[in-house]
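Hi L., both proteins are below.
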Amino acid sequence: VPFVESGGGLVQPGGSLRLSCAGAAYSVSDEIMTWHRQTPGKAREWVATLFTGGATFYTESVKGGISVSRDEAKNTMYLEMNSLKPEHTAVYSCRKHGATTWGQGTQVAVSA
């Protein structure tokens, strides 16, 4: 598995989570990295991209509420999510740009 996601869980509306994407076969600093999410019955949705130079891009629906970053020493990319809402409930996955497979992802559930 190229990357391993973790950090998901059950959180109340308004809460925060930090998801991790640890590089197991690649360096997160040497690849264009992306976060995606999927809810049952819906297509997987792109959430954010982190370029090797540090630039970040986010889907419009999450702007202002999330940020993506990386720790080179830990070879890990992060997705910080704040002010969570029930509609953020999904399985979040990461991968490098151009990859054709997915890891197991990490489940985020936002509920009172």
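That was the first. Here is the second:
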Amino acid sequence: QVQLVESGGGLVQAGGSLRLACAASGRSFSDTNMAWYRQAPGKPREFVAISGYLGTTLYLNAVKGRFTVSRDNNTNTLYLQMNNLKPEDTARYYCNVLGLWGQGAQVTVSS
């Protein structure tokens, strides 16, 4: 059974940094794309970044240059390093693997 557990969220001032982690269990994910999404209150869930199993990465335009997605296939962990955070980055961040979702991690950026 695949399980995804996000961690690393919190409250930070604008311009600060946070690092999210998504621990995946239940099988190896080295041959699987792994992605981050986010959902702000009253808004639909949106794609943020993806780590392709062949090494490619893609980002939402609004986070390019500020966020970096990475993965550790030895520990089945997906990361999202978020720098220069802005109030508009406030959302619940979710890991998505094989169509499954974790419980999310809240990120709140104060101005």
